[in-house]
Amino acid sequence: AEEQLRQSQKMEAVGQLTGGLAHDFNNLLAGISGSLELIQTRLSQGRINDIERYMTAAQGAARRAAALTHRLLAFSRRQTLAPKPTNVNALVEGMLDLIQRTVGPSVQVQTVGLAGLWPALVDPSQLENALLNLCINARDAMPEGGRIVIETSNRWIDAQVARRQDMPEGEYLSLSVSDTGTGMPPEVIAKAFDPFFTTKPLGQGTGLGLSMIYGFAKQSGGQVRIHSTVGEGTTVSVYLPRHQGEAARDEALPRGGLLPVA
Ligand code: ADP
Predict the structure, then answer these.
(1) Given this model, what pLDDT does residue 74 score?
(2) In the prediction, which pLDDT does 10 show?
């Protein structure tokens, strides 16, 4: 039954994603067929002056549609979740080199790992992807450089907060990534988890980073929260359920499966 639930939640996430994709794809197709119609009309009237412009527009839309399908294919190849007891502090430590190399020398990366952090029940390689994506977003928000703080803590979510935050009451640990970047205005926060929502220039953002992190956190029984002040910076916190039972083993994690998408 649990597996079934997990499967249906996954289908819901995929449904949302493909719904967003279908919408964007449809817009592009409408653009292409509109351009083709205009070309046909102009040709039948023997007026060829605007034809080149319409052809360029159609080609641009076709290229963007192809890019969309590539992203969907990359998404569908994602492995399914394999949650296990995970020491998140150790996971962060193990990622630091890669993170620092990815964000570059103009961004200082600090960690604040809580001693006595609870083990999380989570798929460690998906959490690594999420962490790397959050750091890439943080870097993108700090074109002049700045500071990233990666912080872990134990959290008790009571019934009232749980209702407000749309997550079950209980024990969680949070992994948060803070930056000293541009911040996000409310209208960007409102759409940040939508698949393909991006404010980055064409070709730079996929708009999939936060939507995938959100899907992953929800499927893991957790949540994602954004706190941001324009001009000061952003904190994105991923809440993961505490693993109840024997403690997490400190396993070395393979680096190979990392796939930055943001
Ligand atoms: P992408 O990074 O490809 O644009 P995401 O889903 O990861 O896709 O992010 C969506 C949007 O949310 C970004 O385009 C950006 O506007 C905003 N955003 C995400 N993280 C941050 C951050 N740390 N600081 C400022 N804005 C952010």
Answers:
(1) 61
(2) 58
Supply the DSSP symbol for 242.
B
110: which residues sit within 8 A by CB, 6+ positions away?
147, 148, 149, 150
Q: How remote is the CA of residue 197 from the centroid of ligand 1, in Å?
A: 8
CA-nearest residue for atom 12, ligand 1, is 192
Residue of 132, 210, 235 with the most ligand 1 atoms within 8 Å of its CB, for mutation: 210
Name the residue of 189, 198, 213, 230 whose CB sits within 8 Å of the most ligand 1 atoms, as the mutation to test its pocket.
Answer: 198
Question: What pLDDT digit, counting tens, does each position of 159-183 carry?
Answer: 999 999 889 999 999 999 999 999 9
Alpha helix (H) residue ranges in 141-195: 159-165, 186-191
List of the chain residues with pLDDT < 70: 1-20, 70-79, 203, 246-262
The residues, ordered by sequence, that sit 6+ positions from 208 with a Cβ below 8 Å of its Cβ are: 71, 75, 195, 196, 261, 262
Specify the pTM. Answer: 0.72
Ligand 1 centroid–CA 141 distance in Å is: 8
Q: Report the greatest alpha carbon distance in the chain.
A: 78
The residue to which tokens 């979510």 are assigned: 157
Q: What's the pLDDT score for residue 81?
A: 80
